[in-house]
Amino acid sequence: MTTPLTRIAAVLLGVAFLSVGTASAEAATDAGSYGAHVAACAQLVGFDGTHNPGMHKGITGWGPDHVCNH
Q1: 17-48 pLDDT, tens per residue?
Q2: How far is CA 30 from the centre of its chain?
Q3: How far apart are CA 41 and CA 57, in angstroms?
Q4: Which residue, among 51, 56, 48, has the nearest Cα to 69 in the 3D structure?
């Protein structure tokens, strides 16, 4: 026999589990977009000491609207 509190806890745990899975999928998509952007910039303008992915602090400082220019 389960109590209502146990059922509520199980539902909340399930919701938390599903939301973590969604966040991971979104992060993977963003990482793929960032990687494609870095590859395109390397081919279009190249990288040097003043223009490279590190200047944006990697994916955390990057936005999909960033334009490759030197």
Answers
A1: 555 544 454 555 678 888 888 888 888 888 88
A2: 4
A3: 16
A4: 51
Q: Which residue has the higher pLDDT, 49 or 10?
A: 49
Give me the amino acid identity at 66: H
Tokens representing 29? 């998509």
41-54, pLDDT tens digit by residue? 888 888 887 777 77
* Residues with Cβ within 8 Å of residue 62, at least 6 apart in sequence: 34, 37, 53, 56
**pTM of the complete model:** 0.49
Alpha helices, H only, 1-67: 4-44
Query: HSE on the CB side for 57, CA within 13 Å?
Result: 3
Provide the token pair at 58. Answer: 């990697």
For residue 43, give Cα distances in angstroms to 17, 18, 35: 40, 38, 13
